[in-house]
Design goal:
Blueprint (H helix, E strand, L loop, with lengths): L7 H14 L5 E3 L7 E5 L9 H11 L2 H6 L1 E4 L3 H13 L3 E6 L4 H9 L3 E5 L3 H16 L2 E2 L6 H18 L5 E5 L4 H13 L4 E7 L4 H8 L22 H10 L2 E5 L1 H15 L5 H13 L7 E5 L6 H8 L1
Parallel strand pairs: 2-10, 3-4, 3-6, 4-5, 7-8, 7-10, 8-9
Antiparallel strand pairs: 1-2
Helix pairs in contact: 1-2, 1-7, 2-4, 2-7, 4-5, 7-8, 8-10, 11-12
Length: 317
């Protein structure tokens, strides 16, 4: 049995709070990627990432006493930034634990939004999460997972999926980056609620393929120590719930190389006029390699824009 699912009511509540506090991002045609290809531009979200949506839904779902005490999270950067902004909107104290390798642009956003930022010298996302969970236990505060939470998944994938279906009802293939798997779980919920039938494609980096390995092995890889990657937002393991949602909902799960991610970031800048981070570029990289293998119209979820200027400059050179 799956540890959690996303109810119709949960998705409806997430939709309401996201509509009130986040941007409605556009779905735009991308002819440079081929006929019938579109992009859902979450890189244009208020925090530069779709993660604001799930953070808003998660805090809205907590009871008033829990919100008043505050929450703790672990993050590769974007979820923490989103939770910091959501906490400021709702008056909820937020503590965000990140690793030392988290891009400066994301750490700066978290601090500027008013959250308490704790940087730990830990290798990989899983170690950061373990530290954050222990901190939450010690302080008696709620831990808000970036992916293993039905409200977060409803806010992130659920609201994105519903907006795509409203803007492009004819979509036949939806391509999404996969880290912990919450985005995929939410997109599948939106497909169910809307009675849609688009195929769902998940993409990870070859450097950290936790969900791909989980699906191959038939078990959730709860922790996963991968290699260094430009897609640092997709690092770490998955959960039992997100693994089961992915197994039930994905049409295919593919990997892209670091070289392809780098090329996709450069292509997005030069041909599409977009600044995107590595975690978002995996979907663009996949479209460039596999577009003809799937049925159009195709929509790729461009999940974020938060890349350090020095990294982007080096890639563009």
């Amino acid at each position: 049995m799956c540890p959690w699912s996303i109810s119709d009511d949960e998705l409806s509540r997430a939709r309401a709070v996201v509509a009130a506090h986040a941007a409605r991002t556009p779905v735009v045609a991308a002819p440079a990627l081929g006929p019938g290809v579109h992009l859902k531009l979450e890189c244009a979200q208020i925090t530069g990432s779709f993660k604001l949506r799930g953070a808003l839904a998660a805090l809205a779902a907590l009871d008033p006493a829990t919100r008043a005490r505050g929450v703790v999270t672990a993050s590769a950067g974007n979820h923490g930034y989103g939770l910091a902004r959501a906490g400021a909107a709702f008056g909820v104290p937020v503590s965000v634990v990140v690793g030392a390798s988290t891009p400066a642009v994301k750490r700066e956003g978290i601090a500027a939004a008013g959250a308490t930022l704790e940087v730990v010298d830990a290798r990989g996302y899983d170690a950061v999460e373990a530290h954050a969970k222990e901190l939450a236990r010690a302080r008696g505060l709620a831990f808000v997972s970036p992916f293993d939470d039905p409200a977060v998944a409803a806010g992130n994938g659920g609201t994105v999926g519903l907006e795509v279906l409203e803007d492009l009802p004819s979509v036949r293939t939806l391509v999404a980056p996969v880290g912990g798997g919450g985005l995929i779980a939410g997109l599948a919920a939106a497909r169910r609620v809307a009675g849609a039938s688009f195929a769902l494609v998940g993409v990870q980096s070859e450097a950290c393929p936790a969900m791909a390995r989980s699906l191959e092995e038939g078990r959730a890889r709860l922790t996963f120590e991968g290699a260094p990657t430009l897609a640092e937002g997709l690092e770490g393991g998955v959960s039992e719930a997100t693994f089961l949602h992915a197994r039930a909902s994905l049409g295919r799960m593919d990997l892209v190389s670091e070289a392809a991610i780098r090329d996709a970031m450069r292509f997005a800048h030069d041909a599409l006029g977009l600044v995107i981070e590595g975690s978002a570029a995996v979907a663009v990289a996949w479209i460039r390699a596999h577009r003809v293998e799937v049925e159009p119209p195709v929509v790729a979820i461009v999940t974020g824009a938060n890349v350090d200027p020095a990294v982007l400059s080096e890639i563009l050179r």
